[in-house]
Amino acid sequence: MPILTDDATLDDWYRDNVIGGRGSFVEVANDFLDFEAAIGKKIEREVIDGGGGVDGGQKVPEPTSVFGFLSLATFGVGSMLKRKQQQKS
Question: Which of helix, strand or coil describes residue 15?
Answer without folding.
Answer: helix
